[in-house]
Amino acid sequence: MAEEILGKGIIKNTNPHNLARVYQNYIAGTNEIYPPDQLPIVKALRGEFCTTEDIEIHRDDRVIPLESWGTPIYDENGTVQYGMAVFQDISERRRSEQILQDSEARYRVLSEMSPVGIFRNNLQGACIYANPKLQQMSGLSTEEFLGEGWGCMIYPEDRQRLYKLWSNFVTQAQHNLTAKYQTEYRYLTADGSVRWAIVEALPERDFTGKIVGFVGATIDIHDRKEIERILSDYSHSLEQKVRERTTALAETNYQLQQEILERKAIEEALRHSQEQLQQITNSVNAGIAYVDGNLRYRFVNTIYAQQFGKSYESIQGKQIWEVIGIEAYQTVKPIIDRVLQGEPQTTELEVRSTTGESTYLNLNLTPEFNANHEVDGYYSVFFNITERKCLENSLQEANNQLKRLANLDGLTQVANRRKFDEPVS
Description:
Blueprint: H1 2-6, H2 19-22, E1 25-27, H3 40-45, E2 50-58, E3 63-74, E4 80-89, H4 91-113, E5 117-121, E6 127-130, H5 132-138, H6 142-145, H7 156-174, E7 181-188, E8 194-205, E9 211-220, H8 222-244, H9 248-274, E10 287-292, E11 297-300, H10 302-307, H11 312-315, H12 320-324, H13 326-340, E12 345-352, E13 358-369, E14 375-384, H14 386-407, H15 417-421
Antiparallel strand pairs: 1-2, 2-3, 3-4, 5-6, 5-9, 7-8, 8-9, 10-11, 10-14, 12-13, 13-14
Helix pairs in contact: 8-9, 8-14
């Protein structure tokens, strides 16, 4: 094994001064010969115990990183009799460490550019990380948000409720019960205004399954709340018209109620799906992907994969047209070309399934630059805005119906006096 790593066996007439050069020992990451007096075997001969990971063997075809130990062997008089050096090839460990570093860097970039607020809390509930989006939502700096400062973001009337829910969530998690933190609440912005958000959190575990903290995401849902309020107002108005005039609007009201039920069913299905998420990116209600410069997928989250009816594993390494189809690719190709030229892109798309059903997406593409300011690939984040589109269409339909009722007689269904008073165009 030693000869296989070193590329040679014992060479006679080798002394400590030329040992590093003979066996091509270099300082890790450089082309400098390792200092002979610092070699583990030389230190062992001096009576020193040592361990090091900064030695590399430079072979003609490769570089081998080593972990080395030096141990002196003494005789019965306590004199160093000889030294022993043990070493092993740690190439696989180095590759694993590099892959881990690359993965952590990529997830950090995803968190930093995420349109959703992401946070991490320790076991005591103190915040130890908040991404830029969460700081932007709250108007708090990093220092202000960390620790217990995150509570300042919560609207005062909602704080005790959220604190109690969080306490119950932590207790369940620590007793190895199925635990998930999810609730809607009001929060304060930098200018003091009040907005609605939904927060979700899951236990964060190490490789042994031990809970080491909690991770979560906060999404602003204020626009959705406003649409629900407006829709509720219109619904009450329509019900009043039905009672006052005819039963003709009963069908319209029934359809409106069906749309509300369908929307609630979609929300329930979404909540059920989100209960399965256990990773940071999968706790975000958005499709996220990273595509390299060769248009191959290097990362997708669950929602992205589900959009195209595929699994996470089947998408990895595939080129984009193999996943979304040639026709869809031709549609988005101009957008992709621009983002690969370094221009961020935002657009709304209508995607049709094989059954002809339409899905509306809000798509954001952000280029990734390397140290030379060249585009290596891009991040893709999309939101499904079908619900918003459907609600907008429902509001428009309800508004048109109200206008029609205002201009028709409830009994005869002909134009009333108000209609006749309008000028003839």
